[in-house]
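Quick one, probably user error.
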């Protein structure tokens, strides 16, 4: 066993390619065979060197090469995990050539999740493209279509609304109705007051998943799961991002460089496991380093919770 800050680190990864890395890969693969896919929320973390990543793969003339790591580490990541959530897609539209190159770095069985670009989901400053289904289809979804078999889901993350949007369920209803078929969609809210029957009814009508998310201003995942009819589709998405009450900036200061489980949260691990136990259909679990300090270790803790039952 390895310990940090007096906390057992779940018998994890003394060296890449070693028994513990292989054991994690076997455990994750066993759950993937049951339709439950565990992975990170992004993957380019040097803090995972010696855990998920092999240092020698990214060394040039005896020095770590960040450019090589950023370019190539996804292939090594996919040796352990069957899925990842590409949060990077939130920040811009990418050309077709970018997507073709990305998908060719992973096995055909690998499943991506992607956040849709914020240009579509942010109403800030009177954004004219807010909920523009035609734009997101043309510049994003249609470019993923050739790789549809490797796309597990698309998440539309809506920021915390600081001004009331009483008509949001109706706006969302129209938007979801206009999206192209053939991909699975989820909605991630950051405004707790919108969690309710009208919102869940809209998602259910379009077979869209409510994304169970752990984030600064949202109820914990267990409370979201306890809401009536919060499982709205025939598949399930969980995004374990931040501990509620903690800002992104606070998490970065406390938890980087994301090489250890600095702030274990057993209740949070339990909540994610509870969603898996109650989930419908294929289930995707994306864990961020800023959830508890190290996503692979947090995944190990969630698996321990599941496998101890």
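Nope, works fine. Designed sequence:
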């Amino acid at each position: 066993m390895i310990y940090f800050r007096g906390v057992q680190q779940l018998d994890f990864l003394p060296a890449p390619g070693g028994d513990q890395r292989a054991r994690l890969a076997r455990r994750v693969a066993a759950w993937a065979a049951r339709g439950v896919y565990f992975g990170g929320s992004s993957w380019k973390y040097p803090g995972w060197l010696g855990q998920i990543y092999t240092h020698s793969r990214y060394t040039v003339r005896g020095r770590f090469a960040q450019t090589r790591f950023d370019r190539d580490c996804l292939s090594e990541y996919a040796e352990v995990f069957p899925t990842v959530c590409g949060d990077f897609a939130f920040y811009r539209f990418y050309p077709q050539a970018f997507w073709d190159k990305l998908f060719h770095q992973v096995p055909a069985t690998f499943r991506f999740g992607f956040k849709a670009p914020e240009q579509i989901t942010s109403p800030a400053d009177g954004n004219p493209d807010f909920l523009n289904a035609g734009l997101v289809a043309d510049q994003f979804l249609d470019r993923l279509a050739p790789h549809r078999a490797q796309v597990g889901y698309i998440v539309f993350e809506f920021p915390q609304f600081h001004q009331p949007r009483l008509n949001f369920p109706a706006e969302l209803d129209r938007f979801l109705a206009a999206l192209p078929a053939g991909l699975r969609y989820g909605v991630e809210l950051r405004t707790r007051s919108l969690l309710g029957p009208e919102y869940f009814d809209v998602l259910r009508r379009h077979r869209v998943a409510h994304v169970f998310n752990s984030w600064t201003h949202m109820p914990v995942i267990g409370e979201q799961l306890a809401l009536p009819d919060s499982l709205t589709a025939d598949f399930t998405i969980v995004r374990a991002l931040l501990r509620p009450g903690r800002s992104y900036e606070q998490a970065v200061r406390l938890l980087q460089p994301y090489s250890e489980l600095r702030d274990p949260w057993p209740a949070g691990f339990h909540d994610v496991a509870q969603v898996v136990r109650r989930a419908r259909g294929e289930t995707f679990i994306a864990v961020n380093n800023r959830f508890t300090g190290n996503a692979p270790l947090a995944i190990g803790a969630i698996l321990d919770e599941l496998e101890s039952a």
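Residues 3-308 form a domain with the TIM Barrel fold (CATH 3.20.20.410).
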